[in-house]
Write a structure and sequence with these properties.
Oligomer: single chain
Helix content: 25-40%
Number of helices: 2
Strand content: 15-25%
Shape: globular
Distance between the termini: 17 Å
Order of helices and strands: EEEHEH
Structural class: alpha+beta
Radius of gyration: 12 Å
């Protein structure tokens, strides 16, 4: 996956990110599978916000499984 530096942060993020809104429509196990697939594909940039209802919790379950250190939120 191609990566770029995010602004002046020096964070190296994938050019394709994952938007957190759709994950709120799946169950915990599916959310974990999605996070595993993101890691496999080299996608490390996740957009999420408190207003995305339960998406932050579901993303959190996935991060516990695949490792928070693999992603930039």
């Amino acid at each position: 996956m191609e990566k770029r530096i995010l602004g002046r942060t020096n964070f190296e993020v994938s050019v394709i990110g994952f938007g957190g809104i759709p994950i709120q429509r799946v169950d915990k196990e599916t959310a974990i599978k999605i996070m595993e697939e993101l890691k496999t594909r080299g996608i490390n940039f996740i957009d999420t916000a408190r207003g995305y209802t339960i998406s932050e919790s579901l993303i959190g379950y996935g991060l516990e499984k695949v490792g928070r250190e693999n992603f930039i939120l």
